[in-house]
Amino acid sequence: MSVRELVVLGTASQVPTRHRNHNGYLLRWDGEGILFDPGEGTQRQMLRAGVAAHDLNRICVTHFHGDHSLGLAGVIQRINLDQVPHEITAHYPRSGQRFFERLRYATAYRETVALTEAPVAVDGPLAVAPGYTLDARKLSHPVESYGYRLTEPDGRRMLPDRLAAHGIEGPDVGRIQREGSLNGVPLDEVSEVRRGQRFAFVMDTRLCEGVHALAEGCDLLVIESTFLDEDETLATDHGHLTAGQAARVARDAGVRHLVLTHFSQRYSDPEEFERQARAAGYAGELTVARDLTRVPVPKRR
Q: Catalytic residue positions?
């Protein structure tokens, strides 16, 4: 049975708090696991969330600030300690190659796993897998940062009433799907497009073209909202978003489920992020992330 969900491992910006670990997010996508921005403490959070090193297939780092990458050393060593039998690919900004290498070889350990380095230097596709395409878009932050977007290919949804009208049943349903037509009946006549699901991960950034491109039409958008709206100037100066800005991006992009995260330690009331997001006009599903929260990808329309 396929599972598509986000497992939130940490939600704090800059420094961990009593209630929030540094960043860390695992996307389960059918049989694959993509780990985004493993901050300090991610290995322990994985244990608490029931996530094993064997669950990982990709690691995607948006940028090399510590709260998004200091957990790399522990995660990579755990992958080797557990002797994960499959290849794992790491994506990260090419400009931070020296940081990745320092973290990968921060201490002595025995390498047993093929970790493929696939740094990001330009916008565009990074990988094409059977169930998705992974793309990157550059963001606006004091250090080079990229957001990631996963897009499932469109499929076909068979329409039982139209199949019945043409007398197509049993094995012939599979045949028309494979061959595109049957006895003069085209596939389009008995089916409709089933839109592929879309997921985006947007961390430290100001508003920019990349943010909007990543969010467009997403079923699930994970986006930073470090500051509340009254601190918008501070957010812009430091290369971040406010709750209202993130919500307006989601509203304009037609996002179905919005996950706000990466909160500054200066705020004590997380519910204010939800209030400001709603005030900005976002009416879809909304989650103000907490550590160890699980958020399912919305079911297809």
A: 67
